[in-house]
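Example 4.3 (complexes with small molecules)
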Amino acid sequence: MLKISSLKKLVTDQMAIDLGTASTIIAVKDRGVVLDEPSLIAVNELTEEIVAYGQEAADMTGREGRDVSVKAPLIGGVVADFERTKKMLANFVKKARSGGSNIALSAIMTMPSDVTHVEQRALSNAAEEAGIGKVFMMEEGLAAAFGAGVLPTDKRASAIVDIGAGTTNVAIIAKGSVVHSASERFGSNEINAVLATHLRRHRGLQVGEETTEFLKTNFVSTFIPDDISRSIDVRGRDVQTGSPAAVEITTGEVYPVVEAVVRRIAELVKDTLTELRPEVAADIYDRGVVLTGGGSLLDGLDQYLRSYINLAVSVAEEPRYATVNGLVKLFDDPKLLERVSRNDLGILQNAEIPFEA
Ligand SMILES: Nc1ncnc2c1ncn2[C@@H]1O[C@H](COP(=O)(O)OP(=O)(O)OP(=O)(O)O)[C@@H](O)[C@H]1O
Ligand SMILES: [Mg+2]
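Answer. The structure with magnesium ion bound is encoded below.
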């Protein structure tokens, strides 16, 4: 049995790690977020060496040198390239540690829910090897809920929808536990994909990731636009000739393309809410749904969902940091940490290993 006293020791100087498809976010108690970088690496294809990590790799995207390619080792919430995911995580942990005098003795970490247990264990080992004494694992939905302000003591149910880059996760939380959840390998990156496909097929323009991301965050809306002729110039490569080119697109043109993706997210939420026990459903009816994750920042998404499910919908404060903020909160509550960490990985059983401070 794990003693609370030994856990208390573990939770001093702790690091919270949210390993996501799009970004990895690391926070340290009392210092807040110390690292927020794209989950990307740049690889030299000839030597297979990793030449850059995170933001530095992202800055090369689309304009890589001939032998270098930028890769996302986690795709759609799945570890596509395990060895490189490990190296990336180790790099981020080292960077986060050198950010201050704080030495992390242990960490709480979330990772995409589809990562297998074997992979989870190997990834937590990678973090441990990068200088963390002990790594606890926690379910992402629960961490996001705590970060969005759900109290672990609350007996009534709350609904949290995390819209990440590669996954959408609906979690129903009561008394600090997940009572129901559903997730799909489908997230905000799908919007980039449909925008790129639309431009290529219908406008004959090939565009890069930077362009679709710009359109998504600055031009796209999930409202039916008041002015469907508001337009923007988009630059890229002409599909026919290969030459640099530009086309003008309008809000009216992209609205239906994006709406199809948003509708699918709304359907997942709606379907999940029909699977609840009556008391839980009653709580959600009263309280509505809270959105977390970067995808919830899409203009008008909360209003769209509100009218789709006919319930109150709000966006959490700092939605991209909800998960890591939830992990940080556990530092103050070792008892809760003990309960919510995944002990099916055998991690908690090992936690009594003598500790050198
Ligand atoms: N202002 C914005 N408007 C629209 N979308 C945004 C905005 N900011 C970020 N995003 C999108 O949010 C997504 C990243 O969200 P988040 O950081 O929560 O993902 P993640 O945790 O890495 O992914 P996952 O949880 O799927 O593993 C990206 O698809 C990004 O394009
Ligand atoms: Mg996430």
